[in-house]
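Hi W., the zinc ion complex you wanted:
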Amino acid sequence: MSARTWSEEESRLRTAICRVGKLSYDRNYIVGADGNISARMSDGTILITPTGAMKGFLEPVHIAHVDMTGRAMDDGPKPSSEVGIHLVSYQERPDCKAICHAHPPHAVALTIAGVDLQTPIIPEIIVTIGGIPTAPFGTPGTPELPETIRDLVRCSDVMMMQNHGSVTLGANLMDAYKKLDMLEHTAKILWLAHVAKGGLEPLAPDLVNKMLATRSKLGITTRNTLENQCGVDPPR
Ligand SMILES: [Zn+2]
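Structure:
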């Protein structure tokens, strides 16, 4: 399909994917040809960044268009090799309309160092996101990787993949990007605190519960792995 025949929705989403790609690249959440960004159209098909591309330099015509099995809708650009992460997320979450997969350095480093981002420490994150769980290691480029996040995706809009990267789900592209932005900012604060203090202390459970109780009053409905432990191993 050429630019001439794109619907208004398709043109808008292709442009928005490029914008989020540039933001992610400029903020160092992805480098080289890392990461991928997608959006689900109202007909159920997926627009996604192409394989091997640097996300800071994309034009709308570079975006790939696939169906819910990952099959190309046209003879245009080929989708990212990590398209499976996106397909699993859209399968499990009919409410999800956009996904950012990135390699935010502080957040990935903390998974490598074994620092649990799910630990409730920062009030803003407890209230808005709830928790940041980490999926077990999966080999990139294989069907194993998307399956590692399937349980967590049902339970959380924000998650890490061990030693690899982040997945954030949104009601639209800016929402998915906002969660990536918040995730890496959280990781930076925890990193600094970890270095300064030599470890991280969770907030007391009664404080955490008080904050979680404000979510319903504030109308916050993001899926919350702190409250329900859904998809997360129970604390040891
Ligand atoms: Zn990746």
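Helices lie at 8-26, 83-92, 105-113, 123-128, 144-155, 173-197, 205-218.

W.
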